[in-house]
Amino acid sequence: MQKRVFFTILMAFFALSCMAEGLVYLSTEDFKKKVCYYDLTLDKQPQWKYIGDKPCLIDFYTSWCKWCDELHPILEQIAKQYEGQIYVYTLDAEKEPEVAALFGVSGYPTVVFCPMENNPPQAISGYRPIEFWQEVIKQIFGIEK
To answer: Which residues on adjacent β-strands are paired with residue 61?
Structure first.
């Protein structure tokens, strides 16, 4: 009986976690599967081709960055507010320097906006209030809230 209750609770938790997108942490491998596949062993610069099914923004942060810590709650709000319309990813630039280097990220936080239709990504560095990010989402992705 205890196993059945535990299994039921575990399955309910799994189902709920799959339903809510929220702020998603990316590794390099996740980036290659969800955002843009690239192979640095080839002798040419990787080509940008967004592979997601809806626009995304990627927060590049570091563990020591005070402004990154301030931005995360805002990005969590953005993820909830635009759930089902955009993906909101976050990536630790110290743990995943290869991806940060692809975008030329050198200051933190940096948020990269990846629109659909293979339009080039656009990066914005620095902490800003939620209203700023909502306006950028409107301008780049054409999505209003």
So the answer is: 92
Task: Report the alpha-carbon distance of residue 116 to residue 99 in Å, rounded.
Answer: 19
Domains of the chain: 21-141 (3.40.30.10)
The DSSP secondary-structure symbol of 48 reads P
List active site positions: 65, 68
What are the start-end ranges of the H helices in 20-123? 28-34, 66-81, 97-102
pLDDT digits (tens, 9 = 90+) for 23-81: 899 999 999 999 998 877 776 677 788 999 999 999 999 999 999 999 999 999 999 99
SS3 143: coil
